[in-house]
Amino acid sequence: LPFSGHSLRELTAMGEYIDAEWASLIPSATAVADYPARTYGTIGHGPQPASLDALLVMGVDLSALDAVVVSLFQIDSAFPVQLKEGGELWPALRCSLASFIMYYPERVKYEEMVIVQRRLLEVVLEVFHCEDPNERICEWAVAIRK
Predict the structure, then answer these.
(1) Could you name the domain of life of the organism this protein comes from (predicted)?
(2) pTM
(3) Does residue 2 belong to any structural domain of this protein?
(4) What's the pLDDT score for residue 43?
(5) Is residue 77 part of a domain?
(6) Are 117 and 72 members of one domain?
(7) Do 64 and 19 have their domain in common?
(8) What is the count of structural domains for the chain?
(9) Segments forming the whole domain that contains residue 77
(10) pLDDT digit string, tens, across residues 63-96
(11) Burial of 20 by CB count in 10 Å (0-12 exposed, 13-18 middle, 19+ buried)?
């Protein structure tokens, strides 16, 4: 797959993500890491990572969203310090949660990533004790996309 930067020569492509040296992976890494857009030679603001900011405006508690991150990604004492709450990669996990939420309605519609959808529903129900976690996540998805 020459345009995506992935190699199918190995059993797994995990190394391609961990040691991302391919030029075609840089735009995605830039968006996920929340680096500012490059201004020289570009039009607009460039890629923007998904953000939980819209949910905070709606009054959703950030500490509750962080609890969703911990439970959804099963963060425990064995994780590297960078991936724990307050670590330097914690914002990337928040972006990942925002992406999960943002694309949730489409994934339900097309029956994609069913295990991830189910786990997200379970965690939102566990943390927020809402009657209909599906409806709540869909509302959040709309807010994040705006």
Answers:
(1) Eukaryota
(2) 0.69
(3) no
(4) 62
(5) yes
(6) yes
(7) no
(8) 2
(9) 52-145
(10) 999 999 999 999 999 999 999 999 999 999 999 9
(11) middle
Q: What is the pLDDT of residues 94-133, one digit of tens each?
A: 999 999 999 999 999 999 999 999 999 999 999 999 999 9
Residues 19 and 89 in one domain: no
Distance from chain centroid for Cα 7: 23
Q: What is the rounded CA–CA span in Å between residue 3 and residue 24?
A: 7
The answer on 136 and 71 residing in a single domain is yes
98 and 34 co-located in one domain: no
pLDDT tens digits, 36-49: 656 667 665 556 78
Buried b (16+ CB within 10 A) or exposed e, 53-85: ebbeeeebeeeebbbbbbbbbebeeeeeeeeee
Distance of alpha carbon 105 from alpha carbon 14, whole angstroms:
27
Output b/e per residue, 131-142; b: 16+ Cβ within 10 A: eebbebbeebbe
